[in-house]
Every structure is written in structure tokens, then in C-alpha cells.
Amino acid sequence: MSALWSVGAGLLLLLLWVRHRGLEAVLVHHRWVFVCLFLLPLSILFDIYYQLRAWAVWRLHSAPRQHAQRVRHIQEQVREWKKEGSKRYMCTGRPGWLTVSLRVGKYKKTHKNIMINLMDVLEVDSERQVVRVEPLVSMGQLTAYLNPMGWTIPVVPELDDLTVGGLIMGTGIESSSHIYGLFQHTCVAYELVLADGSLVRCSPTENSDLFYAVPWSCGTLGFLVAAEIKMIPAKKYVKIHYEPVRGLQKICEKFTEESKKKENSFVEGLMYSLDEAVIMTGVLTDEAEQSKINRIGNYYKPWFFKHVEKYLKADRTGVEYIPSRHYYHRHTRSIFWELQDIIPFGNNPVFRYLFGWMVPPKISLLKLTQGEAIRKLYEQHHVVQDMLVPMKSLEKSIQTFHVDLNVYPIWLCPFILPNNPGMVHPKGNEAELYVDIGAYGEPKSKQFEARASMRQMEKFVRSVHGFQMLYADCYMTREEFWDMFDGSLYHKLREQMNCKDAFPEVYDKICKAARH
């Protein structure tokens, strides 16, 4: 009883403090209070619900049977839209706050919302080494489903909540991408409901133009209802080697050298300043030295980027064996390093042991509850950007990031970019090695101003024939956007498939200059 009185008294004091400071002031300057008391418990309930649902679907084997019925319902909605006179653009009915992108899609309020309830694994074909899934299947859900069967997918983008549909219609990357390319390059077929309500399957040999045009199109060519993704055999551990490197030139040379080695299953770099980094390489293995196993995904373990930093501070190399699924989702608990700005004491051992099992809060819930004040604050004083540039431009790119943003850590992830048709491909006629430079946090550059600084960054990326990931804020004009991306196939298909009255152009859907 005394414990209940203590909790009650504590809540009363908290409410009085919130009333004194004002709710908006607390949410902006002490956001951790709201996150810890409300969003973390709510995130746990979200996870429990989706895990129970996935388990029930698996036990009842209901996903394949219900899939065809759900797709027919989507087709019926599209045909109904046509009967109504095609007066508005269409979009998915999924609420904007549920997506991992930081943007809140205002177009949801004005477009015709097509409800798409497709979130199940449909089929695992071990002979073809292909898994067929619905678009709302998440990375956490997919690896949990495949790993016990001895399978995984070649590219597992970091965060648990990233969905297959988002990774195809946008893009996705992982430290294995120097071998397999972007997430889209591991897909072998897509199924879409088009603007006329028809269901179409596309692959490199069947409706190939559509297959190559879908990635990066952000849902502006049709509604994705299923995808087939390559599988590879899973192994128990990733043997990871940590090597601190100092000096920008040496960092770029070492990172490029390791990225070209196909014997490395994984390559990743974390830069902690302009001239300090840790380069990590990993190989899949079923054998491990027991004394060197690090289950980094356990809730009480240090955040991965903080763990890596220890090797830099100690100026020593190291080798560990990380269970494969822990490795695939190594940045999830700290949302890379974004969570340190939301819960400043989140990596404290006491917090990790007592409350680490509740971390991270759902990104979707953070968006839903951020409010206009926080949104504007983040927009002006925070960046979340991934720029994809040729590996040969890495050193110049990092220097540009340092001058314009000065955000650390910086994530480096190499990938091979094939010369396929579509919006994103190398300038030449052959595949080329690229690198994703990820900047997430508060810029320390004194001259940082969100719009001007990002336009400067975008101009630089265009100059080296690079690309900007479209989940983030984009400030380009329409001409600049189509200078960065190859729209020839995309525009041809929008014309052929009568998309212009059905879906907005991708630029109008994602760029700030078009949305404001």
C-alpha cells in the first residue's frame, strides 16, 4: 500500500510540474519524460499485438488463403474510384504517422485512401530460394520468421520496423550491399494493382520495364501487393573485426579497400570526427570462440555505436562473434544514435538494466506525438539524411558533410550499383561501387540553416552523380530533382499506364518545394 501511495504522490508531483511548465515546454525541452512514461509502454503493447497476430497467422496458415481476397478488395476500391470519376489522386490508406519516414504525408487528407491490409509472409520456396511476402511485412518480422528455418535475406536494412513495401518503393541498404546491391536488387518479382484495377506481376523477364521502374517510385505507378525476395542460407554468427583508423585519407583508403573485398560478408564504417573512424568487416560463420561471443542485441548491452567507440578510444583492434540476428538489428535499440537526443541517459547502465527491455520507442509513435513545435524544431535544428555517392568521391563528400553539417557519428555503408534501367543507376555503362553517407543528429556547423544548407548538399550530390534517399526532407526544384534521377522510364510508364490522373508524380509527393 505504501508503494502505491509513493507512486501516486510521484504522479501528482509530475502533473503539477507539467502544469507549471506547460505541456508544450515539457514535450519540447524534456521529451524524455513523455517518452519514458508513455511511449515506451505503448511501444511494448504495439509489439505484443503484432507478434501475437503474426503467430496466429502462422499457426492457422491463413495468410496465403486470405491474400487473394485482400487483393480483390484493393482492386474493388480502385474500380470504385474510377466509377466516381477519378476526381482525386489515390494513395494508400495507411496513416502517415505509421511510416518510418520523418515526413508526415499531408496528401493523405486530400487523396482517395485505398485501404491495404497486407502484412504477412506468404510463402517460403526453398528450392528457388525465394520468399514471397506482402508489402507491410517488417524486417524484424521477416528475420524472426526466416532465421529458425535456416534462411535470411541478402540485404536486411537496420531498423526492425522498416517494411518491404517502403524498402522497394523507396530504398534500403545494409552492410552486405557491397555484394548484393540495394534492397531492390535482391527482389526477383513484384505484384501490383494498377490504376485500372488490374493485377500485374513483373520481373526482369516479365513486364520488365515496370519491374525496373517501381523502385524509388514511392507508390506513384501502382499499389504493391506482394514481392518475391531472394534468400540465402543463414549462419549463427557474424565474426566482426573492429579497426580504428585515423586521418581522413587513410579512412577513405581503408574503407574503399575493404568494400572491394567480396570475402567480406559485411563492411561498415562509423566516423566519430573528421579524422577518426572505426572500420568494421564481418563474415558469416557457424563456429565461434565462446569467450568472444557478444550478444549485443540483449536489452542490457551498451548501444552498438557506443560499444564500437570503445575500440577507437582504446586505439586497439578487436574481434567478436555476434549472433546473426543481433547483428542485423544492431542499430535498432538506439535508432542508430538518434535516441541519445531523446533519452540522454538511455545508455546509462542503470537505465539499460531497469528499462532497456522497453527500448526503443516506436518511430511511428514519436511522429504521432511530436506536435507542431517539435516538428519545426527538428526541421530547423536536426538532420536525418542519407546521400548515396560514388566511392571515388568519398573523401570530398565527407569534407562537404563536415563543412555544411558537422554531424557525428557519420554512418558509412558501401553498395554496388548495377547499371539497370530505372531512376537510379551509375553514370557509365557498368556497375559502380557507391557509398551511403548517413548523417543523423544536430548539426554543429555555425552556418547551418536547414533549407540553404540542404540545398547546398543536394547540389554537391548532383555534381558527383549521387542520389538522395527520398524518405528525408528534399529541397530540390523539379528540374534539379530530375537532374539527379533518371525519369525517362518512369515518365514513359506513367503515360502508358494512365497514372497521371491516378497518382501524383513522385516529386510532388516527396519534395518540400512541391508540398509547401
From TrEMBL:
Its EC number is 1.3.1.72. Pathway: Steroid biosynthesis; cholesterol biosynthesis. The chain crosses the membrane at residues 32-50. Residues 60-234 form the FAD-binding PCMH-type domain. It is found in: Endoplasmic reticulum membrane; Golgi apparatus membrane. It is an enzyme of class 1 (oxidoreductase). It is a single-pass membrane protein. GO terms for biological process: cholesterol metabolic process. GO terms for molecular function: Delta24(24-1) sterol reductase activity; Delta24-sterol reductase activity; FAD binding. Keywords: Cholesterol metabolism, Endoplasmic reticulum, FAD, Flavoprotein, Golgi apparatus, Lipid biosynthesis, Lipid metabolism, Membrane, NADP, Oxidoreductase, Signal, Steroid metabolism, Sterol metabolism, Transmembrane, Transmembrane helix. Its main location: endoplasmic reticulum. One of its GO terms (cellular component) is endoplasmic reticulum membrane. The keyword Transcription regulation does not apply. Belongs to the FAD-binding oxidoreductase/transferase type 4 family. Catalyzes the reduction of the delta-24 double bond of sterol intermediates during cholesterol biosynthesis. In addition to its cholesterol-synthesizing activity, can protect cells from oxidative stress by reducing caspase 3 activity during apoptosis induced by oxidative stress. Also protects against amyloid-beta peptide-induced apoptosis. This is Delta(24)-sterol reductase. It comes from Myiagra hebetior. The lineage of its organism: Eukaryota, Metazoa, Chordata, Craniata, Vertebrata.
